[in-house]
Amino acid sequence: MVYFCSLITLGKMRRKSGKSSKSSSSGSASRGRGSKGGGGGKMFKGNILVAMFLKLLLALALFFLSRILFFALNFGYFSDFGFVNILRIFFIGLRFDISAILIINMPFIILLTLPFRIRYQPLYLGVANTYYYIINSFALFTNFGDTIYFRFTLKRLTFDIFTYVGVGGDFDKLIPQFLRDFWFVALIWLIFVAILIFFGRKIAADKPSSGKNSEGFGYFVINTILLCIIGTLTVIGIRGGIQLRPIGLVTAGNYVSAKYLPLVLNTPFSIAKTVGGEKLTTLTYFKKENDLAKVYSPVHRGKIKSAKRLNVMIIILESYSREHIGSLNSSLENGRYQGFTPFMDSLIRYGLYFDAYANGKTSIQGIPAALSGIPSLMNESFIQSGYASGKYSSIAGLLKPKGYTSAFFHGGTNGTMGFDSYTKLVGFDRYFGRSEYNNEKDYDGKWGIRDEEFFQFTANTINGFKEPFAATLFSLSSHHPYYVPAKYINVFRKGKLPIQQSVMYADHSLAEYFHTAQRMPWYQNTLFVITADHTSEGYYPFYQSDVGQYAIPLLFFKPGSNLKGKSTFLAQQTDIMPTVLNYLGYDRDYLAFGSDLFDTTGTAPFFSIHYITGIYGMIKDGYYLEFDGARTTALFDLSDDLMQKKNLAGTRPEVQKELETFIKAYLQQYNNRLIENRLLLDN
After folding, report:
1. Rg for the chain (alpha carbons), in Å?
2. What is the overall mean pLDDT for the chain?
3. Do residues 454 and 442 make contact, with C-beta atoms less than 8 angstroms apart?
4. Is residue 373 a part of any domain in this protein?
5. Is 504 in contact with 433 (CB distance < 8 Å)?
6. DSSP for residue 63
């Protein structure tokens, strides 16, 4: 707000400097006062700097109102924060709003502060105002679009959304669907744009009268000084103050825990601060590599034991949150919670189950975490980052020299999220998508081929593979708009969340897949791994918490094996690759940022880590730690505070230090290996 107060003061000073010349010119007395014949219908017509200030203030007001609507439309997620805290967040958010407004309106500010009289010409002002209306309308569009998209990612959009569109996000088909489902948000946005234009047009700049202070060298000097002052104030506003470093996404973590960061931030700010791609910083928490490796190393040593030539079938289910699985939520609804996954409930009894956590909130983050053991600990996904051009592998790539055939199955349109390129890069032999399925009558009209038919296609295609094989099947129907075939609309129950009926359809498709697979000759010799790419929108309080919003299932099932029960070990998606390779008796060294869940030596660390909006979240040893790269912002004891209500940061120094040491080692290994292209070991 200091920026805006300073700007209007300068405008008034500039206006006063022209009073003497104004009074000496006939017919000029009414200018700048909105009188008849001078301003006609304008709320303000006068000094160009004051007019600029008022228009920027109008944009700030609309940003503020859009934050209120963001809160209101996602009230269920933020309702536990308290009224006083919400007001505090709204006030703090102004700092980020001002920064965003100044960033996106920089051309507008420059055009109106240049010390040349051409800035008063109608065409020149028309160009400046047109830019103002377009850029601020688009900024409001991103804010309102994020009001809905936030429910799926639980973070503000960043610049990687444009990369996501570029790698095939099917946005051309999904945007119309979003507009149909959430038309009221589009309507509110149009109302805000109308307000912006209506009141913006009521504010006009008036050309100063001729005089010694309004023309010639004196005019140029005065306005050049004003340009320098306004430019300095603008830079300070963009930086968020005069502190050493400009504000960024991580700055919001100084005020709230990770869950509430989206309320502090705004979407234009998040996008602007992530333009240009992610650049990780080389970390030096540990000076010596030996000291670093003693705390954490992603290098896994080959096992000296007999290899099992088992097939590997990894099934990744879209948005298949742990919340949807009845047998894993027996305490909900006083024990009456049924869940929406009857087949998964039954299969869990015959496999080895782990309570796991996703390493991200999107599919494009979950796939490389599960298949390559690489999480996306930055604002963009690993696949979309510049580091994806380095050398790294996957389960399929590592098993290829062992004679494994491999394939990735996803019923989406080929090119969706770049999965076809990624799987080829990391060693998968073949990719099967909508094109390879080649039967459009089973297309759902939005994402791709319906799960039930594509799952059957997968089972039958695999039946022609040479064994052993390593295959991955990624479902798609349990994704907005949550497709369910008409014949099942009255068969599968609806739940408290729109996704849950489609989760029942996905579970049914999984059941039919297994009914087909168990008749295949390869079935008995196959290790099945079933998990989710990420979670869906949560309903119950735990699944809306910082921890619960990442809760997914992880099941290992081998027909006729002793892999049974429910493990007490904490798991994450990046554990899948080392666990599978260990079970197969893989004998070469490799790299994965996860642990072998079948390790019986007691040396493997069991934990889960994720990153969201500048904050790293780690679950380990019964605690949840939030770390911003320099300090702990929150610490919760999950043994008696599952909902993360009591921040213990600073109160348990020994625990905090141990967790900080581990996460620093993990991040140093992650950042430095990505930067130095050391993700693939030379054996």
Report:
1. 29
2. 88
3. yes
4. yes
5. no
6. H
